[in-house]
Amino acid sequence: MMPPPLHEDTGPRSRLHEAARLAALYQSHLLDTEPEEPFDRVTRLVSRVLQVPVSLVTLVDRDRQFFKSIHGPAEPWQSQRETPLSHSICQYVVEDARPLVINDTTQHERLRDHLAVRDLDVQAYLGVPLRTPDGHVLGSLCAIDLQAHAWTEEDQHALQDLAQVVETELSLRAQMAYRDERHTQLVEASGARERFFVAMGREILTPLDGLMGATAILQGMRLNNEQRDLVGIVEISAETMHTLAQDMMHAGDLEAGAVSIRHDPFRPARLVADVVSLFQPMVAGCPISLEAEVDPVVPPVLYGDEARIRQILTTLVGRAAKSVRRGSIIVRVTVEGLATEAPCLRMAVQDTGPGLTEQQQQQLLQPFETATLPRPSGLGLSVSRRLAERMGGRLLLESTIGEGTTLSCTVQIALAPPEPAS
After folding, report:
1. Hey, CA dihedral for 117, 119, 122, 128, is it positive or negative?
2. What three-state secondary structure class fits 112?
3. What contacts 126, CB < 8 A, 6 or more positions away?
4. Which secondary structure element, helix H or strand E, spans residue 171, and what is its range?
5. What is this structure's pTM?
6. How far is residue 254's CA from residue 259's CA, in Å, rounded to a whole number?
7. Is the peptide bond before 76 cis (omega within 30 degrees of 0)?
8. What are the two backbone dihedrals, phi and then psi, of residue 351, each rounded to the nearest 5 degrees?
9. What is the pLDDT of residues 335-380, one digit of tens each?
10. When you count CB atoms within 10 A of the terminal residue's CB, does the N or C end of the chain come out lower?
11. Cβ 350 vs Cβ 332: under 8 Å
12. Which residues pair with 345 in a beta bridge?
Protein backbone atom coordinates (compact mmCIF):
# COMPACT_ATOMS: atom_id res chain seq x y z
CA MET A 1 0.00 0.00 0.00
CA MET A 2 1.05 3.55 -0.71
CA PRO A 3 1.55 5.73 2.35
CA PRO A 4 -0.78 8.71 2.59
CA PRO A 5 0.39 11.92 0.86
CA LEU A 6 1.92 14.66 2.97
CA HIS A 7 -0.47 17.31 1.60
CA GLU A 8 -4.06 18.13 2.23
CA ASP A 9 -4.74 17.49 -1.46
CA THR A 10 -5.91 13.89 -1.91
CA GLY A 11 -5.91 13.97 -5.71
CA PRO A 12 -3.80 11.69 -7.94
CA ARG A 13 -0.02 11.79 -7.44
CA SER A 14 0.79 12.42 -11.09
CA ARG A 15 4.44 13.55 -10.97
CA LEU A 16 5.72 10.37 -9.32
CA HIS A 17 4.36 8.15 -12.10
CA GLU A 18 4.71 10.63 -14.95
CA ALA A 19 5.83 8.78 -18.09
CA ALA A 20 8.40 11.40 -19.08
CA ARG A 21 9.98 11.37 -15.61
CA LEU A 22 10.20 7.59 -15.56
CA ALA A 23 11.64 7.56 -19.08
CA ALA A 24 14.34 10.03 -17.98
CA LEU A 25 15.06 7.84 -14.97
CA TYR A 26 15.49 4.72 -17.08
CA GLN A 27 17.56 6.57 -19.68
CA SER A 28 19.99 7.64 -16.95
CA HIS A 29 21.09 3.98 -16.70
CA LEU A 30 21.70 4.42 -12.99
CA LEU A 31 19.09 2.05 -11.55
CA ASP A 32 20.51 -1.19 -10.15
CA THR A 33 24.12 -0.14 -10.83
CA GLU A 34 27.11 -0.61 -8.56
CA PRO A 35 28.20 2.10 -6.11
CA GLU A 36 30.37 4.81 -7.69
CA GLU A 37 32.82 7.16 -6.04
CA PRO A 38 31.39 10.45 -7.46
CA PHE A 39 28.10 9.75 -5.64
CA ASP A 40 29.63 8.12 -2.56
CA ARG A 41 31.87 11.15 -2.05
CA VAL A 42 28.78 13.37 -1.87
CA THR A 43 26.95 11.23 0.71
CA ARG A 44 30.07 11.14 2.87
CA LEU A 45 30.22 14.94 2.70
CA VAL A 46 26.54 15.23 3.61
CA SER A 47 27.04 13.15 6.76
CA ARG A 48 30.17 15.06 7.69
CA VAL A 49 28.83 18.58 7.02
CA LEU A 50 25.37 18.06 8.52
CA GLN A 51 26.61 15.71 11.26
CA VAL A 52 24.07 12.97 10.58
CA PRO A 53 24.53 9.19 10.64
CA VAL A 54 22.71 8.48 7.37
CA SER A 55 22.75 10.12 3.95
CA LEU A 56 21.41 8.83 0.65
CA VAL A 57 21.29 9.48 -3.08
CA THR A 58 17.97 7.91 -3.98
CA LEU A 59 16.35 7.25 -7.34
CA VAL A 60 12.60 6.85 -7.08
CA ASP A 61 11.06 4.30 -9.42
CA ARG A 62 7.35 3.59 -9.89
CA ASP A 63 7.23 1.11 -6.97
CA ARG A 64 10.56 1.38 -5.15
CA GLN A 65 13.45 3.65 -4.26
CA PHE A 66 16.98 2.63 -5.23
CA PHE A 67 19.99 3.86 -3.28
CA LYS A 68 22.61 4.92 -5.82
CA SER A 69 24.74 5.92 -2.86
CA ILE A 70 24.16 4.97 0.74
CA HIS A 71 26.12 6.06 3.80
CA GLY A 72 25.41 4.82 7.29
CA PRO A 73 22.23 2.69 7.58
CA ALA A 74 22.36 -0.75 9.13
CA GLU A 75 21.67 -4.02 7.37
CA PRO A 76 19.77 -5.26 5.47
CA TRP A 77 19.39 -1.88 3.69
CA GLN A 78 23.13 -1.41 3.25
CA SER A 79 23.30 -4.58 1.13
CA GLN A 80 19.89 -4.50 -0.51
CA ARG A 81 20.30 -0.85 -1.56
CA GLU A 82 16.57 -0.38 -2.10
CA THR A 83 13.24 -0.28 -0.32
CA PRO A 84 9.64 -0.40 -1.51
CA LEU A 85 7.87 2.96 -1.74
CA SER A 86 6.05 2.06 1.46
CA HIS A 87 9.34 2.80 3.22
CA SER A 88 10.25 5.92 1.19
CA ILE A 89 10.04 9.51 2.33
CA CYS A 90 12.10 10.62 -0.68
CA GLN A 91 9.07 9.94 -2.89
CA TYR A 92 7.45 13.08 -1.45
CA VAL A 93 10.43 15.17 -2.57
CA VAL A 94 9.92 13.81 -6.08
CA GLU A 95 6.16 14.35 -5.97
CA ASP A 96 6.47 17.96 -4.77
CA ALA A 97 9.69 18.72 -6.71
CA ARG A 98 10.86 20.84 -3.77
CA PRO A 99 12.88 20.35 -0.54
CA LEU A 100 11.26 18.51 2.34
CA VAL A 101 12.22 19.48 5.92
CA ILE A 102 11.02 17.36 8.86
CA ASN A 103 12.60 17.94 12.26
CA ASP A 104 10.78 15.12 14.05
CA THR A 105 8.78 12.50 12.18
CA THR A 106 7.25 11.18 15.38
CA GLN A 107 5.49 14.53 15.79
CA HIS A 108 4.40 14.74 12.14
CA GLU A 109 0.70 14.09 11.71
CA ARG A 110 1.05 12.06 8.50
CA LEU A 111 4.46 10.48 9.04
CA ARG A 112 4.39 9.27 12.63
CA ASP A 113 2.98 5.92 11.42
CA HIS A 114 5.06 5.74 8.26
CA LEU A 115 6.98 2.46 7.75
CA ALA A 116 10.24 4.39 7.25
CA VAL A 117 9.79 5.68 10.81
CA ARG A 118 8.73 2.37 12.27
CA ASP A 119 11.17 0.02 10.46
CA LEU A 120 14.11 2.28 9.54
CA ASP A 121 14.15 4.54 12.61
CA VAL A 122 13.96 7.72 10.49
CA GLN A 123 13.20 10.46 13.03
CA ALA A 124 14.50 13.55 11.21
CA TYR A 125 14.61 14.04 7.42
CA LEU A 126 16.02 16.71 5.12
CA GLY A 127 15.83 16.08 1.37
CA VAL A 128 16.24 18.09 -1.83
CA PRO A 129 15.31 17.12 -5.42
CA LEU A 130 17.83 15.77 -7.93
CA ARG A 131 16.92 17.10 -11.37
CA THR A 132 18.08 16.21 -14.86
CA PRO A 133 19.07 19.01 -17.28
CA ASP A 134 15.51 18.73 -18.65
CA GLY A 135 14.00 19.37 -15.21
CA HIS A 136 12.79 15.86 -14.40
CA VAL A 137 13.16 14.95 -10.72
CA LEU A 138 14.77 11.53 -10.55
CA GLY A 139 15.14 11.28 -6.79
CA SER A 140 16.55 12.99 -3.76
CA LEU A 141 19.73 13.77 -1.91
CA CYS A 142 18.76 13.41 1.73
CA ALA A 143 20.15 13.59 5.24
CA ILE A 144 18.60 11.38 7.93
CA ASP A 145 18.97 11.47 11.69
CA LEU A 146 17.88 8.76 14.08
CA GLN A 147 16.81 11.38 16.59
CA ALA A 148 15.02 14.71 16.36
CA HIS A 149 17.10 17.30 14.50
CA ALA A 150 16.37 20.99 14.12
CA TRP A 151 17.51 21.66 10.53
CA THR A 152 18.81 25.17 9.97
CA GLU A 153 18.71 27.29 6.83
CA GLU A 154 22.44 26.77 6.57
CA ASP A 155 21.85 23.00 6.57
CA GLN A 156 19.36 23.35 3.73
CA HIS A 157 21.69 25.54 1.67
CA ALA A 158 24.58 23.12 2.22
CA LEU A 159 22.46 20.18 1.08
CA GLN A 160 21.28 22.07 -2.00
CA ASP A 161 24.87 22.94 -2.91
CA LEU A 162 25.86 19.28 -2.64
CA ALA A 163 22.80 18.29 -4.68
CA GLN A 164 24.10 20.50 -7.47
CA VAL A 165 27.27 18.41 -7.50
CA VAL A 166 25.13 15.30 -8.09
CA GLU A 167 23.12 17.12 -10.75
CA THR A 168 26.33 18.12 -12.53
CA GLU A 169 27.34 14.47 -12.57
CA LEU A 170 23.91 13.56 -13.98
CA SER A 171 24.27 16.24 -16.65
CA LEU A 172 27.74 15.02 -17.68
CA ARG A 173 26.49 11.46 -17.91
CA ALA A 174 23.51 12.55 -20.01
CA GLN A 175 25.86 14.37 -22.40
CA MET A 176 28.12 11.32 -22.63
CA ALA A 177 25.13 9.04 -23.25
CA TYR A 178 23.90 11.36 -26.00
CA ARG A 179 27.36 11.46 -27.54
CA ASP A 180 27.62 7.67 -27.44
CA GLU A 181 24.16 7.32 -28.97
CA ARG A 182 25.00 9.78 -31.74
CA HIS A 183 28.27 7.95 -32.36
CA THR A 184 26.39 4.66 -32.66
CA GLN A 185 23.90 6.24 -35.06
CA LEU A 186 26.70 7.71 -37.16
CA VAL A 187 28.52 4.38 -37.26
CA GLU A 188 25.31 2.62 -38.33
CA ALA A 189 24.61 5.30 -40.95
CA SER A 190 28.18 5.06 -42.20
CA GLY A 191 27.83 1.29 -42.46
CA ALA A 192 24.63 1.66 -44.47
CA ARG A 193 26.33 4.17 -46.75
CA GLU A 194 29.30 1.87 -47.32
CA ARG A 195 26.98 -1.06 -48.10
CA PHE A 196 25.19 1.16 -50.62
CA PHE A 197 28.51 2.05 -52.25
CA VAL A 198 29.46 -1.62 -52.50
CA ALA A 199 26.12 -2.57 -54.06
CA MET A 200 26.18 0.33 -56.52
CA GLY A 201 29.81 -0.35 -57.40
CA ARG A 202 28.95 -3.93 -58.34
CA GLU A 203 25.97 -2.80 -60.39
CA ILE A 204 28.09 -0.25 -62.28
CA LEU A 205 31.01 -2.60 -62.93
CA THR A 206 28.97 -5.10 -64.94
CA PRO A 207 27.93 -2.75 -67.79
CA LEU A 208 31.33 -1.03 -67.63
CA ASP A 209 33.10 -4.33 -68.30
CA GLY A 210 30.95 -4.73 -71.40
CA LEU A 211 31.68 -1.16 -72.50
CA MET A 212 35.42 -1.61 -72.06
CA GLY A 213 35.30 -4.84 -74.03
CA ALA A 214 33.42 -3.14 -76.86
CA THR A 215 35.93 -0.26 -77.03
CA ALA A 216 38.80 -2.76 -77.17
CA ILE A 217 37.12 -4.40 -80.16
CA LEU A 218 36.55 -1.02 -81.83
CA GLN A 219 40.20 -0.08 -81.37
CA GLY A 220 41.11 -3.12 -83.46
CA MET A 221 38.85 -2.11 -86.34
CA ARG A 222 39.60 0.17 -89.29
CA LEU A 223 38.73 3.64 -88.06
CA ASN A 224 39.57 7.11 -89.29
CA ASN A 225 41.42 9.48 -87.00
CA GLU A 226 38.30 11.26 -85.71
CA GLN A 227 36.57 7.96 -84.93
CA ARG A 228 39.68 6.62 -83.21
CA ASP A 229 39.90 9.77 -81.07
CA LEU A 230 36.26 9.39 -80.03
CA VAL A 231 36.75 5.72 -79.18
CA GLY A 232 39.82 6.73 -77.16
CA ILE A 233 37.75 9.20 -75.15
CA VAL A 234 35.13 6.52 -74.47
CA GLU A 235 37.88 4.13 -73.39
CA ILE A 236 39.43 6.65 -70.98
CA SER A 237 36.00 7.52 -69.55
CA ALA A 238 35.20 3.84 -69.03
CA GLU A 239 38.53 3.24 -67.28
CA THR A 240 37.94 6.23 -64.98
CA MET A 241 34.42 5.07 -64.13
CA HIS A 242 35.79 1.58 -63.53
CA THR A 243 38.22 2.98 -60.96
CA LEU A 244 35.44 5.01 -59.31
CA ALA A 245 33.18 1.96 -59.14
CA GLN A 246 35.97 -0.02 -57.51
CA ASP A 247 36.42 2.78 -54.97
CA MET A 248 32.72 2.63 -54.18
CA MET A 249 33.06 -1.09 -53.55
CA HIS A 250 36.03 -0.51 -51.27
CA ALA A 251 34.80 2.67 -49.56
CA GLY A 252 35.20 1.06 -46.15
CA ASP A 253 38.82 0.21 -46.88
CA LEU A 254 39.43 3.75 -48.14
CA GLU A 255 37.93 5.16 -44.93
CA ALA A 256 40.33 3.01 -42.92
CA GLY A 257 43.31 3.84 -45.14
CA ALA A 258 43.52 0.24 -46.33
CA VAL A 259 43.47 0.91 -50.10
CA SER A 260 46.69 -0.36 -51.67
CA ILE A 261 48.75 2.09 -53.72
CA ARG A 262 50.71 0.90 -56.73
CA HIS A 263 54.14 2.13 -57.85
CA ASP A 264 54.20 1.55 -61.59
CA PRO A 265 55.79 3.64 -64.37
CA PHE A 266 53.56 6.18 -66.12
CA ARG A 267 53.94 9.17 -68.41
CA PRO A 268 52.59 12.29 -66.63
CA ALA A 269 52.34 14.41 -69.82
CA ARG A 270 50.28 11.70 -71.50
CA LEU A 271 48.07 11.32 -68.44
CA VAL A 272 47.33 15.06 -68.38
CA ALA A 273 46.62 15.14 -72.12
CA ASP A 274 44.21 12.20 -71.76
CA VAL A 275 42.26 13.86 -68.96
CA VAL A 276 42.05 17.21 -70.77
CA SER A 277 40.87 15.52 -74.00
CA LEU A 278 38.19 13.79 -71.99
CA PHE A 279 36.56 17.15 -71.20
CA GLN A 280 37.15 18.93 -74.51
CA PRO A 281 33.77 17.77 -75.91
CA MET A 282 32.06 19.15 -72.78
CA VAL A 283 33.42 22.68 -73.31
CA ALA A 284 33.28 22.60 -77.11
CA GLY A 285 30.93 25.28 -78.42
CA CYS A 286 31.08 27.15 -75.09
CA PRO A 287 33.03 30.36 -74.39
CA ILE A 288 35.46 28.32 -72.29
CA SER A 289 39.09 27.50 -72.98
CA LEU A 290 40.55 24.34 -71.47
CA GLU A 291 44.35 24.18 -71.52
CA ALA A 292 47.14 22.18 -69.92
CA GLU A 293 50.60 23.37 -68.90
CA VAL A 294 53.16 20.71 -68.00
CA ASP A 295 56.31 22.16 -66.43
CA PRO A 296 59.45 21.22 -68.44
CA VAL A 297 61.04 19.97 -65.19
CA VAL A 298 58.54 17.09 -65.08
CA PRO A 299 60.39 13.90 -66.08
CA PRO A 300 58.92 11.93 -69.00
CA VAL A 301 58.40 8.89 -66.75
CA LEU A 302 57.44 8.79 -63.09
CA TYR A 303 56.57 5.96 -60.73
CA GLY A 304 53.29 5.97 -58.83
CA ASP A 305 49.66 4.88 -58.98
CA GLU A 306 48.63 6.14 -62.42
CA ALA A 307 44.97 5.10 -62.06
CA ARG A 308 44.57 6.92 -58.73
CA ILE A 309 46.36 10.03 -59.98
CA ARG A 310 44.21 10.03 -63.12
CA GLN A 311 41.10 9.67 -60.97
CA ILE A 312 42.06 12.67 -58.83
CA LEU A 313 42.89 14.90 -61.81
CA THR A 314 39.69 13.85 -63.59
CA THR A 315 37.68 14.84 -60.52
CA LEU A 316 39.38 18.24 -60.26
CA VAL A 317 38.92 19.08 -63.95
CA GLY A 318 35.37 17.74 -63.91
CA ARG A 319 34.40 20.01 -61.03
CA ALA A 320 35.84 23.02 -62.86
CA ALA A 321 34.11 22.13 -66.13
CA LYS A 322 30.75 21.98 -64.34
CA SER A 323 31.31 25.30 -62.55
CA VAL A 324 32.59 27.56 -65.32
CA ARG A 325 30.11 29.18 -67.72
CA ARG A 326 32.64 31.33 -69.55
CA GLY A 327 36.34 32.00 -69.21
CA SER A 328 39.12 29.49 -68.78
CA ILE A 329 40.25 26.30 -67.09
CA ILE A 330 44.00 25.78 -66.81
CA VAL A 331 45.59 22.53 -65.66
CA ARG A 332 49.12 23.06 -64.36
CA VAL A 333 51.41 20.15 -63.50
CA THR A 334 54.86 20.25 -61.98
CA VAL A 335 57.15 18.20 -59.76
CA GLU A 336 58.34 19.60 -56.44
CA GLY A 337 61.36 18.43 -54.49
CA LEU A 338 63.18 16.78 -57.38
CA ALA A 339 66.41 16.80 -55.41
CA THR A 340 64.85 15.30 -52.28
CA GLU A 341 64.05 11.75 -51.28
CA ALA A 342 60.30 12.45 -51.46
CA PRO A 343 59.45 14.32 -54.67
CA CYS A 344 55.82 15.25 -55.22
CA LEU A 345 53.71 15.58 -58.33
CA ARG A 346 51.65 18.75 -58.01
CA MET A 347 48.49 19.17 -60.09
CA ALA A 348 46.52 22.41 -59.96
CA VAL A 349 43.26 23.18 -61.75
CA GLN A 350 42.49 26.91 -61.92
CA ASP A 351 39.15 28.16 -63.20
CA THR A 352 37.45 31.52 -63.66
CA GLY A 353 34.14 30.35 -62.23
CA PRO A 354 31.97 32.26 -59.75
CA GLY A 355 34.15 31.37 -56.77
CA LEU A 356 33.07 30.03 -53.39
CA THR A 357 32.27 31.58 -50.02
CA GLU A 358 34.23 30.40 -46.97
CA GLN A 359 31.28 28.26 -45.90
CA GLN A 360 31.06 26.66 -49.35
CA GLN A 361 34.80 26.00 -49.31
CA GLN A 362 34.46 24.12 -46.02
CA GLN A 363 31.60 22.05 -47.42
CA LEU A 364 33.14 21.29 -50.80
CA LEU A 365 35.45 18.52 -49.61
CA GLN A 366 32.72 16.84 -47.57
CA PRO A 367 30.86 13.95 -49.24
CA PHE A 368 27.44 14.77 -50.67
CA GLU A 369 27.19 18.27 -49.19
CA THR A 370 24.34 20.24 -50.77
CA ALA A 371 23.43 22.94 -48.27
CA THR A 372 24.93 26.04 -49.90
CA LEU A 373 26.85 24.65 -52.86
CA PRO A 374 25.80 25.42 -56.44
CA ARG A 375 26.07 21.67 -57.09
CA PRO A 376 26.18 18.72 -54.67
CA SER A 377 29.77 17.86 -53.81
CA GLY A 378 29.20 14.17 -54.47
CA LEU A 379 31.79 11.56 -53.56
CA GLY A 380 34.61 12.53 -55.92
CA LEU A 381 36.39 15.32 -54.04
CA SER A 382 36.07 13.56 -50.70
CA VAL A 383 37.58 10.40 -52.18
CA SER A 384 40.26 12.45 -53.96
CA ARG A 385 41.27 14.12 -50.71
CA ARG A 386 41.61 10.77 -48.94
CA LEU A 387 43.46 9.25 -51.89
CA ALA A 388 45.91 12.15 -51.94
CA GLU A 389 46.52 11.71 -48.22
CA ARG A 390 46.95 7.97 -48.76
CA MET A 391 49.66 8.76 -51.34
CA GLY A 392 51.50 11.08 -48.95
CA GLY A 393 50.03 14.32 -50.28
CA ARG A 394 47.06 16.57 -49.72
CA LEU A 395 44.26 18.41 -51.49
CA LEU A 396 44.14 22.21 -51.19
CA LEU A 397 41.44 24.71 -52.10
CA GLU A 398 41.71 28.44 -52.80
CA SER A 399 38.75 30.48 -53.98
CA THR A 400 37.67 34.10 -54.31
CA ILE A 401 34.12 35.21 -55.06
CA GLY A 402 33.95 36.68 -58.55
CA GLU A 403 37.44 35.51 -59.52
CA GLY A 404 37.40 31.73 -59.48
CA THR A 405 38.71 28.63 -57.73
CA THR A 406 41.97 26.70 -57.70
CA LEU A 407 42.03 23.09 -56.52
CA SER A 408 45.52 21.67 -56.19
CA CYS A 409 46.71 18.24 -55.22
CA THR A 410 50.11 16.83 -54.32
CA VAL A 411 51.01 13.13 -54.31
CA GLN A 412 54.35 11.55 -53.59
CA ILE A 413 55.97 9.86 -56.59
CA ALA A 414 59.29 8.21 -57.35
CA LEU A 415 61.79 9.02 -60.08
CA ALA A 416 62.95 5.43 -60.30
CA PRO A 417 61.27 2.04 -59.84
CA PRO A 418 60.96 0.92 -56.20
CA GLU A 419 63.57 -1.51 -55.02
CA PRO A 420 62.28 -5.10 -54.80
CA ALA A 421 61.47 -6.30 -51.31
CA SER A 422 64.24 -8.38 -49.78
Report:
1. negative
2. coil
3. 50, 99, 100, 101, 102, 142, 143, 144, 149, 151, 155, 156, 159
4. helix 153-219
5. 0.48
6. 5
7. yes
8. -130, 165
9. 999 989 889 999 999 999 899 888 888 877 765 444 444 444 445 6
10. C
11. yes
12. 335, 411
